[in-house]
Design goal:
The structure holds two protein chains of two kinds. Chain A is of the alpha/beta class. Chain A has six helices and 13 strands. In chain A, the strands form two sheets. A nine-stranded mixed beta sheet of chain A has the order 9-8-7-10-6-1-4-5-11, sandwiched between helices. Chain A has a two-stranded antiparallel sheet with strand order 2-3. Classes of the chains: A alpha/beta, B alpha/beta. Chains A and B meet through helix 3, helix 4, strand 7, strand 8 and strand 9 of A and helix 3, helix 4, strand 7, strand 9 and strand 10 of B.
Chain lengths: 249, 327
Amino acid sequence: MRVTVCVKRVPSTTTRIKIASDGRSIDEGGVEFVLNPYDEFAVEEGLRQAEKSGGAVTVITFGPEAATKELRGCLAMGAHEAVHVPADAAPRDALATAKVLAAAIQATTPDLVLLGRQAIDDDQGQVGLMVATLLGFTALPDVVKLEVAGGVAKAEREVEGGLERFELPLPCVITCQKGLNDPRLPNMKGIMAAKKKTIATAAPAAAGATTTVQSLELPPERAAGKIVGEGAAAVPALLKLLRDEAHAL
Amino acid sequence: MACILAIAEQADGKLKKVAGEVASEAVRQGAASGASVLGVTIGAGAAAAAAQLGDFGVAQAVAIEGQGVATYSGEAFAAALAAVAKEKGATLVLMGATSFARDLLGRLGALLESCPAADCVALAADGGKLVARRPVYAGKALQNVAFGASPAIASLRPNVFAAAKGKGATTSVATVAPAAPPKSCGKLVERVATGGGRLELTEAERIVSGGRGLKNPETFTKLIEPLAAALHAAVGASRAVVDAGWRPHGEQVGQTGKTVAPKLYFACGISGAIQHLAGMRTSKTIVAINKDSEAPIFKVADYGIVGDVEEVLPALTEAVKALKAGH
């Protein structure tokens, strides 16, 4: 089985966001970039599915030159091939990104395409579903359990108050949710092997954005609160404030 | 003529709570722009659910029912909804930002050639363009996005847009058959309820969350769950305790978990790492209970108690019970 995994380089979860001087993006100074945490589940799942079926995993990223570091990390985990689609300065929204990725994915002729459930920067959670629709593949987001056999993916996703089980004919796109697996850490052998691998480059397909980010702003600061007191003795005062001042009870 | 589609999520003929919020926002946007509003429901029970949209002031609705959408399939549902949007010349398509939209929003964007904005917290016209406001970086920043293609497509975060009930309009419902689905479709084979009817985090008006300060999973269960029950609150957890395996990941609040905005949020034994604060900072009232008076959680909390959760929480639970009994 051929598995293709799409990954993104994003600011780490510990990043304090500062707005850049253009008022539309973040100031990247001092920001630590990492592989999108949900993409770790996608890479791990790709490796497991490929190991089971004797297939290979190709990892694709659409991003700046620096994102080859994250691709190298995926190769160190065990991915077989990596493709970098360089992003130019042109603004792209989720749909434009999906068009670029769909073209790059198609070139890998996959049976299974895996992505994280969302990138933790834009928080759109749409690219996987768009890619599937553009390619005519089936898809399911937010998957916590996956079995692939006989040309069908059996996948489970969490929804409000329950679980849904789906059957999807291949080729299909799955977006991966926390809980799907426990991603491996690259070992020394993997890291050394990854250094020797070549990262292929593919030109991005032409795709214009249909939405424009007008501005980015920080949320309003919360006003300083008050310490009601110490220990269990403060409980009656807290409840009085919640009821009479905050009207929350 | 501009036309707003309010895709109203329903199950077995009953509108979901978020559907009322979506319908109400569609009516407000229609009143502001002069656009007509059309409710859309889909799947088994669609016609019965569509008739309930009158309560929110939606007078016209399309119910997509029949073979092809009798059971859920993302591919088939998206194709059917996109066909209605095209046929009606929709200029704005709205739906609730639930798991329903997580499966359908991106597909609709690809089918209608217009990038949607997910999880919006406000919609406003700005110089003839519609601008959506949405949290990014799990709420550490807010993005204002202008739509350049028609229809503009947006999912609305639950519990943010007011539902204006009691309009008493009668909805004229046209039942239509779904458009042909694509060649390859997935299908829902089973839906299983979990958690014994527990409150859903993202929908809950009150949340009691616990962190590493609870010391172990047993104490977490013993102290957090009774307080949550007394308050009719959902249970949340910090990433540390989810990663430690104390609680299921569905309860995680924060950047790699859920973003929540309840009316009342209790952070118990949670220090307040930046990725946790990102996920709950828009809660209306925040209460923090932590033994470390320097913990960052106190900087975002409206009310704080400095103390040991093992001492404070049982007292708080009893006091809440007494308060409820007194009402």
